[in-house]
Specification:
The protein is α+β, with helices and mostly antiparallel strands. The chain is 31% helix and 19% strand. It is built from five helices and ten strands. The strands form five sheets. It has a two-stranded antiparallel sheet. It has a two-stranded antiparallel sheet with strand order 3-4. The N and C termini lie far apart (78 Å). The model has no long low-confidence stretch (mean pLDDT 82).
Length: 199
């Protein structure tokens, strides 16, 4: 077993790099049993960020230095929008240093849009502006909230055959179209059914 240098107690420890005493909350969680004490890194968060940035720059010459994001016990700055948000605004990731995503839920969803539909944030905003921020079918704003309590962005509706984006829909209308198989015939029959039974 390696010898632990510096002051270590139930409240915190001295950083193995800068030597400053910090509470355990200022040390990253680690899944590597042989590193750190009590499941925490031996170097404090700030020193770890400096080490990681130096490693990235060495491995990728010419790359711009990473920004030192604000991270504390209450939350962190999102690497997407740059806004400081509480941890409940982030999705959980089991193997990450803090146990949460570096992207807030909203930015994570935007990244999904880009990967799934080839649409970036500016294009999403353009569609949203054209629809005046409401669903293209019901004309209402989104009401469904994510796990962090924020109103979810409107969903991107696309043709499942051609992949062409048709518009932005609220969660309810998007699910309804999906359940009806995007079938105009089924939608017409549903309309006829409602017209004949709803007073």
């Amino acid at each position: 077993m390696s010898r632990v240098k510096g002051r270590v107690d139930e409240h915190g420890r001295e950083c193995s790099k800068c030597g400053g005493y910090q509470p355990w909350t200022e040390y990253w969680k680690t899944t590597q049993e042989k590193k750190g004490v009590g499941g925490r890194s031996s170097a404090c968060r700030k020193c770890c960020q400096i080490i990681l940035q130096a490693r990235r720059l060495k491995e990728n010459p010419g790359r711009k230095p990473h920004r030192n994001w604000r991270i504390d016990t209450g939350g962190r700055e999102c690497t997407g929008c740059g806004q400081y948000k509480a941890w409940e605004k982030y999705g959980r990731i089991k193997d990450s240093a803090q146990g949460y995503s570096a992207l807030c839920s909203i930015c994570g969803r935007q990244r999904k849009y880009i990967r799934s539909y080839g649409i970036n944030y500016a294009e999403f905003q353009r569609l949203l502006d054209l629809q005046k921020g409401v669903c293209a079918i019901c004309g209402e704003g989104e009401t469904v909230r994510n796990r962090g309590g924020d109103i979810r962005p409107l969903s991107i509706d696309h043709d499942h055959v051609t992949g062409k984006i048709r518009g932005l829909l609220c969660a309810n209308c998007n699910v309804a179209l999906g359940l009806l198989g995007d079938s105009i015939t089924r939608l017409s029959k549903a309309l006829a059914y409602l017209s004949g039974t709803v007073k």
